[in-house]
Amino acid sequence: MELPVWFEIATFVGLTVLLIADLAIVARRPHEPSFKEASLWVSFYVALALVFGVVLFAVTNGTYATEFYAGWLTEYSLSVDNLFVFVIIMARFRVPRHLQQEVLMVGIIIALVLRGVFILAGAALISRFTWVFYFFGAFLVYTAINLLRHRGEDENYEENALIRRMRRVLPMTPDFQGSKIRVLEGGRKLWTPMIVVFLALGTTDLIFALDSIPAIFGLTREPFIVFTANVFALMGLRQLYFMLGGLLKRLVYLSIGLAVILAFIGVKLVLEALHENTVPFINGGEHIAAVPTIPIWLSLTVIVGVLAIATIASLLKTRGQAPEPSPAEAGVAGTVGAQGPEALAEAERRAEQRGDERTSDQERSRP
């Protein structure tokens, strides 16, 4: 069954209006949302995704709705895992808490643009070359193995060559100037540290998309479902960042759950590639009808089950532990947090100077 054109247009218009309204709210009143406010917004976006799935079922059929739910859950769980890196980026560049909403919103817009490009490219590849499923499947299994290998290691963010280069060559202010990326100081136009933060988020989003897009194409080949699942997964991510905070550390088994899901989808892709095989050196380029395919309802069941088990097991494992402040909260709480990336070293030098002065005063006061 084909998706009605009017429904696709109405969906894109509605999502665009929603994103613009969200952006306007953030730009008008930049602040750090309370736990209650963040919880309400997250609940709203989750309910919106659930309602959209019901509408999709009513307009089309159960297959598209099931594919949407499976894709949305997969993308949402991957996005939650990516929040760890976002937290570290915020702490690394000392982004003030009241500006983090705007930073995250820009990061989400960058992610939507990049994923839109990847989705169009992926759909074009799949329509012409079904063998690409072999590559996607192998890549997802490889990603799953890496997740398991590096489980338990501390998350870290290393600046790539582009970020290091930009920090060296751009004339930049030492401090953040609100959410501005360009200011006029002393008759000179200077960049602010915010441009580096945006670039860091953008390049990180690009890396995240490399495993995100193949994963959802393993669940559906309909570009509309792929894109809407990504949009609904990213909407509310900003509020989820503030709602979870230090609780992210309690999801100790999330990486295992994601590894299982990615490996499962990878195997599903390889089975589908074999079932529709056109590669000359495999079965003479003929389809392998005996290879089973995994139905979408089973995929959804596995994804929901794995995420539920991973979340419950994580909460039981960390039961009784007080939530730790996230790096972004700890690193931005003080006066240093109101400054730019270069301010930390300056603050440390001042602290050493004050320590030396106190030592000198104590020596002079001795009889």
Automatic annotation (TrEMBL):
Residues 341-367 are annotated as: Disordered. Residues 346-367 have a biased composition (Basic and acidic residues). One of its GO terms (cellular component) is membrane. It is a multi-pass membrane protein. It is found in: Membrane. InterPro entries: Integral_membrane_TerC, Integral_membrane_TerC_rswitch. The keyword Membrane applies. Its main location: membrane. Keywords: Membrane, Transmembrane, Transmembrane helix. Pfam families: TerC (PF03741). The chain crosses the membrane at residues 6-26, 38-59, 71-91, 103-125, 131-148, 190-217, 223-244, 251-274, 294-316. The keyword Membrane applies. Belongs to the TerC family. PANTHER family: MEMBRANE BOUND PREDICTED REDOX MODULATOR (PTHR30238), THYLAKOID MEMBRANE PROTEIN TERC, CHLOROPLASTIC (PTHR30238:SF0). This is Tellurite resistance protein TerC. It comes from Geodermatophilus ruber. The lineage of its organism: Bacteria, Bacillati, Actinomycetota, Actinomycetes, Geodermatophilales.
